[in-house]
């Protein structure tokens, strides 16, 4: 199990490096060149983590969906990834993103953390630059629609100070919202 946070933070433009459990993690905006890394990240997730993130059983995402995940404009959509080095490779261990919603001043957010990094505080760390980006771009609310039995998300939402409401359209879902 990953030990409590031990941080050393270095800010370089839009990139932050920190030490978490003795390993250097980089937090940075996702890039259009991250398609293979993002596909591998999703592929390595456990069936339960995939179920909670995608609301169903998948083994991997279609290429077009992975491409969309990696092509953000920094305004209407944004994503930050947490990566570490394994030899010469950069490996994704978490992602936090927002995408447009029906209301122009709201964005739907999602966070996914690799199974071995869950409960490490990484989700909270990834959420901070995403929230900052949303505020800079005039977003007034971030929200997430999640399955009601996703207890890790409930804990994360509470840590961020998100409000909780049952989804009126689906009793198996919860809507978490954060006023900015």
| CATH C-level class | Alpha Beta
What would the CATH topology be? Aminopeptidase
> Rg to the nearest angstrom?
16 Å
> Would you identify the CATH architecture?
3-Layer(aba) Sandwich
Low-confidence stretches: 1-12
Q: With helices defined by DSSP (H or I, 4 residues minimum), what is the helix count?
A: 5
Helix residue percentage? 25-40%
- The gross shape turns out to be globular
Distance between the termini: 33 Å
Write up this protein.
This protein is α+β, with helices and mostly antiparallel strands. It has one domain: Aminopeptidase (3-Layer(aba) Sandwich), CATH 3.40.630.30. It has five helices and nine strands, in the order βββαααβββαβαββ. It has helices at about 35-45, 45-55, 65-70, 120-135, 150-160, and strands at about 10, 15-20, 25-30, 80-85, 90-100, 105-115, 140-145, 165, 175-180. The chain has a nine-stranded mixed sheet with strand order 1-2-3-4-5-6-7-9-8, with helices on both faces. A hairpin with a 5-residue loop joins strand 5 and strand 6 (about 105-115). Helix 1 (about 35-45) crosses helix 3. The radius of gyration is 16 Å and the shape is globular. Mean pLDDT is about 90; it is low at about 1-10.
